[in-house]
Amino acid sequence: MKRITLATVSLGAIAAIALPLAANAGPRGHGDHHRGMMKAYMAEIDANGDGDITTEEVETFRAAKFAEIDTNADGEVSPAEMTAHHEAERAKRRAEREARMFAKMDTDGDGVISVEEFNSRQMPGFEKADTDGDGVVTAEERDAMKAKMKERWSKKKAGPKPE
């Protein structure tokens, strides 16, 4: 059991160091959202906010993260503690995403979404699929859109072409 705990914590520590460094390596097709998350993660480690991450900051971050996960403070992280931590982080990200979506839709900022605000949302997927612009997405247009999306995903999976 101690080996599993040690392996889990070691992987977490490696991620705490490697992920911020990978974020500085430049775009790799992950999109702006992923880069934004990595920037926030780096800022969390960079305690003094100077843009540089020191060994001391990493060690402090790792100790704090371990203490956060080790909820019973016994000096070991159990699978249940790790699962609970991951679920809490997922719930936090989901709540943040939902709050951003709500704020984007609440265009007048009154704390509620009116019918007008709800219906004023653009429909980029519909507009892209309706290639002839007649306000109707036919079966042929849907099939063409599916084929286009399938092609795009297969190119993403294949990765960048070597030079």
UniProtKB/TrEMBL annotation:
SMART domains: EFh (SM00054)
Residue ranges that the Swiss-Prot or TrEMBL entry lists as coiled coil: none
Cross-referenced PROSITE patterns: EF_HAND_1, EF_HAND_2
Keywords: Metal-binding, Repeat, Signal
Signal peptide: 1-25
Protein's name in the database: EF-hand domain-containing protein
Pfam families (UniProt xref): EF-hand_5, EF-hand_7
Repeat is among the record's keywords: yes
Compositional bias annotation for Basic residues: 153-163
InterPro entries, alphabetized: EF-hand-dom_pair, EF_Hand_1_Ca_BS, EF_hand_dom
Biased composition (Basic and acidic residues): 83-95, 139-152
CDD domains linked: EFh (cd00051)
GO MF term set: calcium ion binding
Positions of the EF-hand domain: 33-68, 93-128
Region Disordered, annotated ranges: 72-95, 123-163
